[in-house]
Design brief:
The complex is a heterodimer. Chain A is an alpha/beta fold. Chain A has a domain at 1-87 and 204-252: Rossmann fold. Chain A is 37% helix and 24% strand. Chain A has helices at 48-55, 78-84, 105-115, 120-133, 150-162, 180-197, 208-214, 232-237, 242-251, and strands at 5-14, 22-32, 37-41, 63-68, 71-72, 88-91, 168-172, 200-204, 217-222, 225-230. In chain A, strands 6-7-8-3-9-10 form a six-stranded mixed β-sheet, sandwiched between helices. A four-stranded antiparallel β-sheet of chain A has the order 2-1-4-5, covered by helices on one side. In chain A, a hairpin with a 2-residue loop joins strand 4 (63-68) and strand 5 (71-72). In chain A, helix 3 crosses helix 4, helix 4 crosses helix 5 and helix 5 (150-162) runs parallel beside helix 6 (180-197). By secondary structure, chain B is mostly helical. Chain B has one domain (2-282): MetI-like (MetI-like fold, Orthogonal Bundle). Chain B is built from eleven helices and no strands. The longest helix of chain B is centred in the first third of the chain and has 37 residues, at 73-109. The chains are: A alpha/beta, B mainly alpha. The interface between A and B is medium-sized, with 29 and 16 residues.
Chain lengths: 252, 285
């Protein structure tokens, strides 16, 4: 099967003038296949979020390349990026912060639709349908981010990411800012949406239990390098690298 | 119990801010209307000379007295207000819009252009504003529009600094990333999401700046670098009366009162707007 996302030797180095360079992501290569949930685990500072930002082209890669459906998107700009974002979306760690504080949730969800030339009336209908799909009632379209809870806001953020009907969804610690029960609801929502729409997820997370429950494959990241990969059971039950052992021990 | 008390004090505070804002808005509107219709409101022609009545002290006929040409001071203060106030408002509007645009673009795009423009604004900020404005005004020659231009040249960096720092704080935030992922172009990101979010601090800076700018504009006119006689303008009216201060103080004091009232009013309005827009107030609004 052809990978939908193919990452080759991706490297990000932050250059500090006067100080030594800081390599946050170091020659990382992996593939994401259609319909797959790929987990990425690792401690804070291991480069998980940087990988998400690199793939979504919010920051430029220092080295390496990113292929989406066989097309090189490492240096995409302007209109090309707009094309890419039709297939690639992201859910952010901080749900409330990911919405413009001066605009309603409905406005934020419909933004990608309007940018792709969907007429206003249709946009409204679609926003309401998306909200329902994510378990929120119609009235949330008119609310501001500070007027809803974190869990509700994250549901709206998922609705926003799904608005343009992408193929790939990157969840950057999408559940870590929420409490456990809400976390469970969001995970169930993500799973049901995956079944309904045939999405691929890149699920960035530091919760091993969640990864075991959700993912078909998992990558362990340490200091910007992939130290281990395999099915969650392999990685968690019989870790090979030292770091993974530490990680598993820390949970149990 | 404790919580209700906080909520109530917050509410009282915000109501208080709202009432203050209303009062100052009405007073400012009155001032602006007076300035706008000063020609109709003035009891005498501000430019009609009548040497028989020169240097009259304040009386029932001339409540602020007359100047050395026998012109009614009250009429001149009213009409002079129109020049002073509208020139100041135009000045603040120009520098806030220009400074904000430059600052936002520099903050958002960064790079070489940002460095060059910010060094230029550093140079402007390094000189004492009025001295620099005097040099520019002297270069441009007299006239109120040249004085406005001179002050604009030296005062825009303040706004570009504020706009730039606010933009820098916002642009790497998660919601701007989300907006970019929605396929918005840079222009859309700046105009729809960054500008509306930084408008509060800019507005407050502008409101508080009106008083200062009015003083500086009057200062330039006082030094003979702004409005030229016989145009009625508070700064040059004070300037012409300066030599007669000991014998005929009302010639200096009347435009002084005009400047005093408007500067205080605009400063109080600026303070109230700042209190009103304070995020700690917004929750209970």
């Amino acid at each position: 099967m052809e990978p939908i996302l193919d990452i080759k030797d991706l490297t990000k180095t932050f250059r500090n003038r006067g100080k030594s360079d800081l390599t946050v992501v170091d020659h990382v290569s992996f593939q994401l296949y259609p319909g797959e949930i790929l987990g990425v685990v690792g401690e804070s500072g291991s480069g998980k979020s940087t990988i998400a930002k690199l793939i979504t082209r919010l920051i430029d890669a220092t080295e390496g390349s990113i292929f989406m459906n066989g097309r090189d998107i490492t240096h995409a700009k302007g209109a090309q990026l707009k094309d890419i974002y039709q297939q690639l979306q992201m859910v952010f760690q901080n749900p409330v912060g990911s919405f413009d504080p001066r605009r309603t949730l409905g406005d934020g969800i419909g933004e990608s639709l309007r940018n792709h030339g969907v007429p206003k009336e249709k946009c409204r209908e679609r926003v309401i349908r998306l909200l329902e799909q994510c378990g929120l009632s119609e009235e949330f379209a008119g609310r501001y981010p500070h007027e809803v809870s974190g869990g509700q806001c994250q549901r709206a953020a998922i609705a926003r990411a799904l608005a343009i009907e992408p193929k790939i969804l990157i969840c950057d610690e999408a559940t870590s800012a929420l409490d456990v029960t809400v976390q469970k609801q969001i995970v169930e929502l993500l799973l049901s949406l995956q079944k309904a729409n045939g999405l691929s997820y890149l699920f960035i997370c530091h919760n091993l239990a969640l990864v075991q429950m959700l993912c078909s494959r998992v990558l362990v990241l340490y200091d910007g390098k992939i130290v281990e990969s395999g099915t969650p059971d392999e990685v968690i039950l019989s870790p090979k690298s030292e770091y993974t052992k530490c990680l598993v021990d820390a949970v149990l | 119990m404790n919580e209700t008390v906080t909520v109530r004090t917050q509410k009282i505070k915000s109501n208080h801010a709202k009432r203050r804002l209303c009062v100052f808005l009405v007073l400012t509107a009155l001032l602006l209307l007076t300035a706008l219709f000063s020609m109709q409101l003035a009891p005498y022609d501000p430019y009609a000379q009548n040497l028989e009545e020169a240097m009259q002290p304040p009386s029932v006929r001339h409540i602020m007295g007359t100047d050395q040409h026998g012109r009614d001071m009250f009429s001149r203060v009213l009409v002079g207000g129109r020049t002073s106030i509208f020139a100041t408002l135009a000045l603040v509007a120009v520098i806030s819009v220009f400074g904000t645009c430059v600052g936002t673009l520099c903050g958002y795009y960064g790079g070489k252009l940002d460095s060059v423009i910010m060094r230029i604004s550093d140079v402007c900020l390094a000189f004492p504003g009025l001295v620099f404005a005097m040099a520019v005004a002297a270069l441009l020659g007299g006239g109120i529009s040249n004085a406005v231009l001179a002050l604009a040249v030296v005062s825009w960096p303040k706004y570009s600094r504020v706009a730039r720092s606010q933009t820098l704080a916002l642009k790497d935030g998660p919601f701007i990333s989300a907006v970019r992922l929605a396929g918005s172009s840079s222009i859309q990101v700046v105009s729809r999401h960054i500008l509306p979010n930084i408008l509060g601090p800019i507005l407050v800076t502008a409101m508080l700046d009106i008083g200062t700018m009015m003083m500086e504009l009057a200062g330039l006119s006082f030094l003979g670098l702004g409005a030229v006689p016989p145009t009625a303008e508070w700064g040059n009216m004070m300037s012409t009366g300066r030599s007669m201060l000991q014998m005929y103080p009302w010639i200096v004091l009347s435009p002084g009162i005009g400047i005093f009232i408007s500067v205080v009013l605009f400063n109080l309005l600026g303070d109230t707007v700042r209190d009103y827009l304070d995020p700690r107030n917004s929750r209970s609004r």
